[in-house]
């Protein structure tokens, strides 16, 4: 393959732009705000799950409370009815009187027990509602932080995207200076060799694999025409000759 030395030199500009584009893509993928937002999202989801549990429990406890309160009412009205009958003086039978008194006493004990239950249940409901309120507050804080972090993430991403657009335009301009067959080879090698397809030959060393070329290789390159596309024997990348290639110094064989 052949290409004008100027076109070959443009490969190095293209390679630099591609490296910059890759760095931008890496930065975009690894923005700290991405991980931070994901963590906050997890936190909000966890709070939501806890909230549902607390709210379900609170509604169970409230139902329990209403049942206990209605039980208290029933027991109280029955005791009131019994007390009225007792106080009416209509019951004269001693056995019946005794039964009534003992029922009133037993209803009194039952009422006290039920009232105790109502108090306990009210306390539980209060705790659960306080917990739900605390979780709601935590959720609001986490959501506000999430909104703030995603806004920061989007701003940073937009800046990177802006740089990317600019570099892509530069890339198009540089590509236009390179013949299609050389550009195709460059793209193929870039995919094959970890994003680096072209490297300068600097002081007898391939800048792609960093290995020094042998005397034989250097002499071959010296003998090659300037428009000949030269490849590194070791890494197979395109070697671009520059002022600093070290080809002019005499090399003993
Ligand atoms: Zn190499």
What percentage of residues falls in helices of 4 or more residues?
over 70%
Ligand inventory reads: zinc ion
Strand residues, percent: 5-15%
Tell me how many strands there are: 4
State the domain count: 2
Please give the CATH architecture of the largest domain: Orthogonal Bundle
Biggest sheet, spatial arrangement of strands? 2-1-4-3
Shape: rod-shaped
Rounded radius of gyration (Å)? 43 Å
Oligomer: single chain
Largest sheet: 4 strands, mixed
Mean pLDDT: 95
- Count of helix runs: 5
Characterization of the model:
Helix 1 packs antiparallel against helix 3. The longest helix is centred in the middle third of the chain and has 82 residues, at 94-175. By secondary structure, the protein is mainly alpha-helical. The chain folds into 2 domains: 5-26 and 179-245, Helix Hairpins, CATH 1.10.287; 31-166, Helix Hairpins (Orthogonal Bundle), CATH 1.10.287.1700. The protein has a 4-stranded mixed beta sheet with strand order 2-1-4-3. The protein has helices at residues 5-29, 32-88, 94-175, 180-192, 215-223, and strands spanning 198-202, 205-206, 230-231, 238-241.
Briefly characterize the structure:
This protein is mainly alpha-helical and 253 residues long.
Question: Which features would summarize this protein structure in a list?
Answer:
253 residues; mainly alpha; Helix Hairpins; 5 helices; rod-shaped; binds zinc ion
């Amino acid at each position: 393959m052949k290409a004008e030395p100027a076109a070959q030199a443009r490969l190095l500009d293209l390679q630099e732009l591609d490296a910059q584009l890759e760095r931008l893509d890496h930065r975009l993928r690894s923005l700290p705000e991405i991980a931070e937002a994901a963590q906050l999202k997890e936190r909000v989801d966890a709070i939501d799950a806890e909230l549902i549990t607390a709210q379900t429990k609170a509604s169970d406890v409230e139902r329990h409370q209403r049942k206990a309160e209605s039980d208290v009412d029933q027991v109280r009205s029955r005791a009131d009815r019994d007390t009225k009958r007792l106080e009416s003086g209509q019951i004269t039978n001693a056995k019946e009187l005794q039964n009534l008194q003992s029922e009133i006493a037993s209803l009194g004990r039952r009422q006290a027990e039920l009232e105790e239950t109502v108090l306990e249940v009210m306390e539980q409901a209060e705790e659960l509602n306080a917990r739900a309120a605390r979780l709601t507050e935590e959720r609001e804080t986490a959501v506000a932080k999430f909104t703030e972090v995603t806004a920061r993430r989007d701003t940073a991403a937009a800046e990177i995207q802006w740089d990317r657009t600019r570099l892509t335009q530069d890339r198009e301009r540089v590509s236009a200076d390179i013949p299609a067959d050389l550009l195709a080879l460059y793209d193929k090698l870039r995919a094959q060799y970890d994003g680096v397809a072209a490297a300068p030959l600097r002081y007898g060393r391939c800048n792609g694999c960093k290995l020094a070329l042998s005397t034989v290789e250097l002499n071959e390159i010296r003998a090659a025409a300037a428009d000949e596309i030269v490849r590194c024997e070791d890494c197979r990348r395109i070697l671009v000759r520059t002022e600093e290639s070290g080809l002019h110094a005499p090399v003993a064989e």
